[in-house]
Specification:
Blueprint (H helix, E strand, L loop, with lengths): L4 E6 L2 H15 L5 E6 L5 H9 L6 E7 L6 H11 L9 E4 L3 H7 L3 H6 L13 H9 L6 H10 L3 H7 L1 H10 L1 H10 L1
Parallel strand pairs: 1-2, 1-3, 3-4
Length: 185
């Protein structure tokens, strides 16, 4: 099998933490190397050069919050038009609403109880502010620690039940990985 790399482009630090912890390990058998890269602080032309460079060949996928766009298609078009034209809309995944909704989607009833939170059945409409309110009402004094504790309890299968945009991503990119997760339980 030829050397294959997957570049996962994410907006920022919280996204990076999520993908490094929950997604990258599930893809280690599918790719020789999985690299998570943050793009929000990078100049657009630098990203375009990077993706075009022969030394950076591999499969590139991009994740972006919907950020007020009317629909997923509009967001995908905006991302490819402004930053990732060579990637193509088929490799852009839109997080609805924001990455915080994916964090909480992976918690089952027991996980919510362990963290001292009320259970949320669906995170499809959850926004950063609601996530922050939950954290403020918890025993955690740091957003990073709160997120790390959530990730320790994260389940792909539960997240697929609680968030439609995560389910779309997982069904498209993680079909082999999800069965591996259930074997590890």
């Amino acid at each position: 099998m030829p050397f294959s790399r997957l570049f996962i482009w994410v907006e920022g630090r919280d996204d990076s933490r999520f993908f490094e912890s929950c997604i990258k390990p599930l893809l280690k058998d599918k790719y020789d190397k999985v690299l998570v890269r943050e793009y929000c602080q990078q100049p657009k032309d630098q990203i375009k050069k990077f993706i075009s460079a022969p030394s950076e060949r591999g499969h590139h996928i991009v994740f972006a919050d919907i950020d007020g766009q009317l629909c997923v298609t509009a967001k995908k078009n905006q991302i490819t038009r402004t930053r990732f034209g060579r990637v193509g809309t088929e490799n852009v995944f839109v997080v609805v609403q924001e990455i915080e909704s994916w964090y909480l989607a992976g918690l089952d009833a027991e996980g919510f109880a362990q963290l001292g939170l009320r259970e949320i059945q669906s995170t499809d409409t959850l926004k950063k502010e609601q996530f922050d309110d939950l954290m403020d009402n918890s025993s955690f004094d740091s957003r990073v620690v709160f997120m790390q504790e959530i990730l320790k309890l994260f389940s792909v299968e539960v997240a697929k039940e609680k968030n439609a945009s995560f389910r779309y991503f997982a069904n498209k990119l993680l079909p082999e990985a999800q069965s591996a997760e259930s074997q590890n339980d």
